[in-house]
Amino acid sequence: xxxxxxxxxxxxxxxxxxxxxxxxxxxxxxxxxxxxxxxxxxxxxxxxxxxxxxxxxxxxxxxxxxxxxxxxxxxxxxxxxxxxxxxxxxxxxxxxxxxxxxxxxxxxxxxxxxxxxxxxxxxxxxxxxxxxxxxxxxxxxxxxxxxxxxxxxxxxxxxxxxxxxxxxxxxxxxxxxxxxx
Length: 181
Fold this sequence. Notes:
Elements: E1 2-10, E2 25-33, E3 39-46, H1 57-63, H2 67-71, H3 76-87, E4 94-98, H4 102-113, E5 124-126, H5 127-134, H6 143-149, H7 161-174
Parallel strand pairs: 1-4, 4-5
Antiparallel strand pairs: 1-2, 2-3
């Protein structure tokens, strides 16, 4: 089985009154690891949100994603169709991996919003939860700290989907024999 390691960035705000806004995916980054933990291929794409198409200053500052990137982006459905073609889950067997449960929920939410089936997006493994459970660590740490404790430095820009996925792939590769679903 191969590992499909992915990360999402989404619309976000840090001001009061925005708690009820619907978050939408604005970027997906992913890489496929072979069963030996080696990166085979990478994928990155921006996605144009429909409910809140204008990025907040907070979101632009956090992700360093600019409004023109989003304005030129394809729709969720178009990007997910490209992602499906890239991953080819009909001929490859994957364990979909992300850091936490939020990305899985976000992709489900956007799929529902856009009436797009993601039945093929499983099995899913929450690496953050499994890493901590396998080591009996009660207080969950962030990816940066876990990378550091495992002898890795974070490479690239934080809060950018492909960089986050590639950094997570280091852990997935190191502990590849632990990730059973």
